């Protein structure tokens, strides 16, 4: 237990504060210090009591355990009170917490109102000072955790979201020399990605704009195109100015005329919203134009949280599977190579996760996943018993290593139901093989990998969600060359392609693979792309992150 002397010193602090906060009055207070029996709570007791009372919203106990450990480490000395004075950095802390909305976080989670109530007390008791100290530390720690790792558990929001890379750097904050150092270090915990920083600036822009201005909407009507005139054209122009696609200019223009510059601005808007960039305002374009500013701000906030689920620093060499852009980006040796990709259909979503690519296979045999065998292959066999022979498949009695190969034409497929299908199917390497000439492996529980495909026509589509979950590459040969360039494995790969042999090639360097999902992304010009939410994951973020205050009637 903390000694009475220490608690009496806290009382002295309260007296000092009351004298300093008497609003210009010269009246002096004379107070008899309490005895030990009059002191109800030590700082140690208050840590335990307050941690239980102020468990962070959303049930995150992790920051509270960290708070307890930090106080234990310092012998339960207060953090925010030193030399009989409250450290002024507590006011800066409150300012930072109140501005947490600029990161898409909610200030309601960080007890700012409660801290301000304690700071407003004219004659705080030792117990109140202890409470203020602990609650302020809880708030600091919760915000440090949330800014660094994200506030929400991604898999509780979406089971298909398996990319969560927490770090413990935020805990180090509590072991710095002073509260001032702790507060000053808070901003350094935000993700360091330039994309996060640009998103955060746009969030502030949309938040400020929504607070200061009303949305300028374009009335429904016939499509607008170059040469048109009228009030709806003026609405279109004003909305594009509001959204930043037209920069404000002092040049005089006819607001109601659809001129070339307006068409160019509209094309830019369409491109960054992934809709047909024809420079005409049809129904789809007007629908996108009329999405409220507050809704767009929420979308940005969801994606800031997704960035916080990633590692704080990304590897220089990495493979970035951008699901909402249908692309695979290779960051290797200081160069960027990108190509189109086909991803999982909405009913067979490609999951979000991180893997480590360790090997590739040339001229691969395709071992058909059990789900695809049940849902895709069995119906085709029931319609045509010769389907396996026609398409180069073999069928085995089971999934065991020594399973016997069977004659598929002698099996009564119509008598087999999905839940009774126990055969193993393999497609031999050839031109029609579903995996083409390559598959690139980063072993994972989802059995997801990158591969070639004979269905090249799908890369001509704008929206390319056609696979059963794996990612198909537009140019797998180029991909293979990039990951083996300058190594012995590069020659091994070329030789295996010439001979048509099924060959496993260990990569010269293992490469991190990120499968990511962002619905708002800064483009090369610093403007925001709002992408199609193909897997409807934003709705799950809305449900998890949405907050509305309780009314008095709703309180217990």
UniProtKB/TrEMBL annotation:
<protein>
    <submittedName>
        <fullName>Murein L,D-transpeptidase YcbB/YkuD</fullName>
    </submittedName>
</protein>
<dbReference type="InterPro" id="IPR038063">
    <property type="entry name" value="Transpep_catalytic_dom"/>
</dbReference>
<dbReference type="InterPro" id="IPR036366">
    <property type="entry name" value="PGBDSf"/>
</dbReference>
<dbReference type="Pfam" id="PF01471">
    <property type="entry name" value="PG_binding_1"/>
</dbReference>
<feature type="active site" description="Nucleophile">
    <location>
        <position position="470"/>
    </location>
</feature>
<dbReference type="InterPro" id="IPR052905">
    <property type="entry name" value="LD-transpeptidase_YkuD-like"/>
</dbReference>
<dbReference type="InterPro" id="IPR036365">
    <property type="entry name" value="PGBD-like_sf"/>
</dbReference>
<dbReference type="GO" id="GO:0016740">
    <property type="term" value="F:transferase activity"/>
</dbReference>
<comment type="pathway">
    <text>Cell wall biogenesis; peptidoglycan biosynthesis.</text>
</comment>
<keyword id="KW-0808">Transferase</keyword>
<keyword id="KW-0133">Cell shape</keyword>
<dbReference type="GO" id="GO:0008360">
    <property type="term" value="P:regulation of cell shape"/>
</dbReference>
<dbReference type="InterPro" id="IPR005490">
    <property type="entry name" value="LD_TPept_cat_dom"/>
</dbReference>
<dbReference type="GO" id="GO:0009252">
    <property type="term" value="P:peptidoglycan biosynthetic process"/>
</dbReference>
<feature type="domain" description="L,D-TPase catalytic">
    <location>
        <begin position="317"/>
        <end position="506"/>
    </location>
</feature>
<dbReference type="InterPro" id="IPR045380">
    <property type="entry name" value="LD_TPept_scaffold_dom"/>
</dbReference>
<dbReference type="Pfam" id="PF03734">
    <property type="entry name" value="YkuD"/>
</dbReference>
<dbReference type="GO" id="GO:0004180">
    <property type="term" value="F:carboxypeptidase activity"/>
</dbReference>
<keyword id="KW-0732">Signal</keyword>
<feature type="signal peptide">
    <location>
        <begin position="1"/>
        <end position="24"/>
    </location>
</feature>
<dbReference type="Pfam" id="PF20142">
    <property type="entry name" value="Scaffold"/>
</dbReference>
<keyword id="KW-0961">Cell wall biogenesis/degradation</keyword>
<comment type="similarity">
    <text>Belongs to the YkuD family.</text>
</comment>
<keyword id="KW-0573">Peptidoglycan synthesis</keyword>
<feature type="active site" description="Proton donor/acceptor">
    <location>
        <position position="451"/>
    </location>
</feature>
<dbReference type="GO" id="GO:0071555">
    <property type="term" value="P:cell wall organization"/>
</dbReference>
<dbReference type="InterPro" id="IPR002477">
    <property type="entry name" value="Peptidoglycan-bd-like"/>
</dbReference>
